[in-house]
Amino acid sequence: MSLPKIVVIGAGSHFFGREVIWNMTHSPVLREGTLALVDTRPDVLDTFTRLARRAIEATGAPTTLVASTDRREVLADADFVILTFSDRNAHFRGMDCQIALKHGVRMCSGDTIGPGGIFRACREVPKALAMARDVEELAPDAWVINFVNPATVLGIALMRYAPNLRSFAICDGMHLPYFELNVLKAVGILPADATAIPPHVRRRLDLRATGVNHFTWMWKLEYDGVDCLPAWGQHLDRLAEREQQRIDAALGGGVDDNAYAKAKNNYLYGQRIFHIFGAYPNRIGHTKEYVPWFQGHGVAPVTPEAIPIFDGDARARQMQARYAESVAYADGRTPIEPFIADGKADHATDIVESMWGELGKPFYINTANRGAVSNMTDDACLELRCDVDIDGPRPQPVGPMPFGLLGLSRQVLDTHELTARAAAEFDRKTLLQAMIVDPIVNNIEDAEAIITETFERQRDALDPKWYA
User: Quick one: 389 exposed, middle or buried, by C-beta within 10 A (0-12, 13-18, 19+)?
Assistant: First the structure.
């Protein structure tokens, strides 16, 4: 078998740039292949190129390394193209969240649903489709793996507007085996120090979890035919109690616990939703933003757990600090050994490794449903447990999604479908439809005001076709 060529567009990614380099130099399947780094910022590209060279030298990996600010220079003969790009991510997400807040919409992340997710898609979808056209021309047999939020919207856009492209979307939130491993340890099926799921455990386990990316639900957890969801609920109750104690202690000391917004109070949110639906929202840090229940509208007052607002400035500082670490590794001011010893793989290259090496590992992938969830349409873009090989993902059967969760998921998915269409076609009417179908936008006037202000303030980031 020839050696894989992997092109990473957005090599300086805050979350994935270093991990891709680590996995490429450590995987027995990938390390003899070619890693092509692409980033439009020359200084960032130089940093990660130098870091990759140091990692290759330190590990003795025979990896071929190429780099360019122009993706077209390196796309030829690519086997995989991983999209991890973004444009001033923290800045615009912070802006999106503050504009929405003026109109009663609280967002703790602002990158997937709500006005923030819709406008991030408007910024990113046209770029992803331009990349898709280049791949179709220069590497028509390559798999394109989208790792950019909103993952479902970009996945839909690639499915609908680049139908000849081989593509799917991923998110690291349900990265296997870690997601299932943590669940099994929490309910006592596996010991706390377990690092893998033994085959005999896997055969006796019936775990059903799916939905729309960042809005997935675990609604069945049986082992040897015994329902283990009550045990999961008890685990969640313990976590929520400890979280409440921390909140009470912080407030008692006169200090508000201003934790990172996406992580704040998640066990309390998850506990409440689980005991209502009998199903667990797997990515509660995002799910709490997908629903209007905690927004503080209506007669009931805002609860102490009201959704905190994403802080773009704090995220920007976090990203700058991590980038400074990467610069120090690249410069040699920080020894490369900690990077080698403490590094970890990323989800995208884990999947590439399994596809290329025919390892037969399952992964949660955002792809067309194709009958896996029996009461959703075949072309619904869902996050599904899939068998994956070089021919792509094949969703494993899940059965019908429970009512309630089904209706919520359909609304989210309709919002994403409309968003993808608006972003790909630069259609303001469809954009307004997406905004008012969105589950956390409260009225037409708010939607129109958010759209007007965002177009005014983000002219430098949005495609000129929006203003034609």
Answer: middle
Tokens of 447: 């939607």
**Dihedral (CA of 278, 281, 284, 288) sign:** negative
Q: What pLDDT, on the 0 to 100 scale, is given for residue 453?
A: 98
Q: What is the β-pairing status of strands 392-395 and 381-389?
A: antiparallel
Q: Can you give the pTM of this predicted structure?
A: 0.94
Joined tokens for residue 74: 């390196």
> Angle of helix 151-161 relative to helix 114-138, nearest 10 degrees?
40
What does R_g of the chain's alpha carbons equal in angstroms? 22
Find, among 194, 187, 190, 191, the residue nearest to 220 by Cα. 187
Q: Residue length, the chain?
A: 468
Q: What residue type is assigned to position 332 of the chain?
A: G
Cα 222–chain centre separation: 27
- Fill in the amino acid letter for 295: Q
232/187 Cα distance (integer angstroms): 6
Strand partners, 212: 215
- Under a CB-based contact definition with an 8 Å cutoff, are residues 184 and 197 in contact? yes
**Domains along the chain?**
5-89+109-169+317-355 (3.90.1820.10)
265: alpha, beta or left? (left if phi > 0; alpha if psi -120 to 50): left
CA atoms within 13 A on the CB side of 54: 22
Q: Which residues contact 174 (CB under 8 A, 6 or more apart)?
A: 209, 216, 282, 283, 364, 383
Q: pLDDT, tens digit, for every residue of 275-288?
A: 999 999 999 999 99
d(C-alpha 218, C-alpha 279), whole Å: 6
Does pLDDT of 256 surpass 70?
A: no
Give the C-alpha separation, 144 to 131, whole Å.
9
Contact 17, 46 (CB under 8 A): no
**Among candidate residues 37, 39, 33, the one with its CA nearest the CA of residue 52:** 37
What CA–CA distances, in Å, run from 201 to 180, 193, 266?
11, 15, 29
Instruction: Name the DSSP class of 283.
Output: T
pLDDT at 258: 45
Evaluate whether 430 touches 418 at the Cβ level (below 8 Å). yes
